[in-house]
Amino acid sequence: MRNNAVFLATAAALILVAACNRGEDAAPTSDNQAEAADNVANGTASTEDHAAIMKARHDHYEEMGDAMKAIGVQLKADSPSLPTIQQHAATMARYAPQVLTWFPEGSGPESGRETRAKAEIWSDPETFRQRAQAFEAEAQRFNATVQSGDVAAIRAGQKALGDTCKNCHDRFRAPED
Amino acid sequence: MASADPGRRLRIWDLPTRIFHWLLVVLLPFQWWTAEEDRLDLHVIGGLLILALLVFRIFWGLFGSSTARFANFVKGPRAIISYLHGRSANVIGHNALGAVSVVALLGLLSIEVTLGLFAGDEDGLESGPLSHLIDTDLSETMADLHEDAFDVLLVLTGLHIAAILFYALIRRKNLVGPMVTGWGRGGKDAVEMERAPLWRFLIALVAAVAIALWVRAGAPL
Questions:
Q1: How many angstroms separate the Cα of A93 from the Cα of each of A19, B29, B144?
Q2: Which of A20, A168, B196, B221 could form a disulfide with B65 if both were Cys (CB 3.0 to 4.6 A apart)?
């Protein structure tokens, strides 16, 4: 019994450390990604620029996935760590407004690169925009909710935020291979 | 082969074993459907019910009625070969070959449930009740394996149904009836099923429910 408790405590500590490390990985986008974005905006994008955009987009989504997982882990814990939740909610709120800039024309399946972004993003931009904006609104709301420290409200907010992720993925993201 | 004498009527399966079986028959498609329809809330409840069924069945396999006990029907390769040659003893319940199928199904189902308990999706939106105990990357791997293992489970279930059809059509032996009514036919020297007392059933039931509820709560110590 005691051994189990020690084991679980160690495992939990390791998971926390892993989660924290992951949070610190939230580095600012590199210069060549910023340059690539500029080139795309100016209409002078090369295929390398598209590759950089797609890579950055992928990394950001990975980070958001990790943030959502870390929040989920906390919400299952006996006493959730509010600072951890707040840190990851901030990641969501920081990226959410950027989503619509991550999908310049030519960065979809037609690029020939591996991507789960579906062509519908560009063929139905209005729906894509609505869903991305719904996600942004929910991410901001969630970021405000986590400041309150009300775990029940945070839990409900996490669900609502997750629903906006899923709502967009269901239509615009291809299934995993 | 099949003798003209259908044998006398006797009890083969007790009520708990039959209820266990038919609940699984209902829950397996339910789990498939809830996964396909993204109803992960219901999927987790279904998974916990299957966990309770498995815990119960393991208890029942150790202390339950005679035909439910592993020790009475799990046999070695020699017994399986001699069954295949039609030289098996006059036993009721699972035959030596059927036992392999039972053990494989129970084992795979246990693996499937365990994988599901620790599984988590790539977006951090859905997760099994024990996923917080392991690293999230490992949870994702568990989710992938959970999906793959289900295909194997479908194959085994298909084999199970094929075997029942084989007995029904070729051997002219009805296996479904006894699993519904508990009654079947056996030869003159067939040994009657020995019923386990109610208190054992109650202990197994309480243990199954308690473990499932504990897991649902995230297995607090």
A1: 18, 39, 29
A2: B196
Residue type, A136: E
**CB contact B220 to A (< 8 Å):** yes
Rounded distance, CA B34 to CA B146, Å? 14
What gap in Å lies between CA B131 and CA B127, rounded to an integer?
Answer: 6
pLDDT score of A37: 72
Any B CB within 8 A of A66 CB: yes
Q: What is the mean pLDDT of residues A151-160?
A: 96
Interchain CB distance below 8 Å, A18 and B135: yes
- Please state the length of chain B: 221
Contact B136 A176 (CB under 8 A): no
B136 interaction partners in chain A (CB closer than 8 Å): 15, 19, 66, 69-70, 73
Is the Cβ pair A15, B131 closer than 8 Å?
no
Q: Do A73 and B135 touch (CB under 8 A)?
A: no
Which residue is listed with tokens 């109803």? Answer: B39
- ipTM for the predicted complex: 0.73
Q: From CA A36, how far away is CA B201, in angstroms rounded?
A: 68
**For A74, nearest residue in chain B (alpha carbons):** B132
Tell me the C-alpha distance between B221 and B216, whole Å. 13
Among A52, A61, A173, which residue's Cα sits nearest to residue A116? A173
The residues that bridge with A154 in the sheet, in sequence order, are none
What tens digit of pLDDT does each residue of A44-103 get?
Answer: 777 788 889 999 999 999 999 999 999 999 998 888 999 999 999 999 999 999 999 999
The two tokens of residue B140 are 């994702």
Q: Looking at residue A46, what is its pLDDT?
A: 74
Residue B63 has pLDDT above 50, yes or no: yes
A125 close to B (CB below 8 A): no
State whether B125 and A11 contact (CB < 8 Å). Answer: no
Higher pLDDT, A14 or A155: A155
Query: Could you tell me the pTM of the whole model?
Result: 0.82
Average pLDDT over residues B176-182: 94
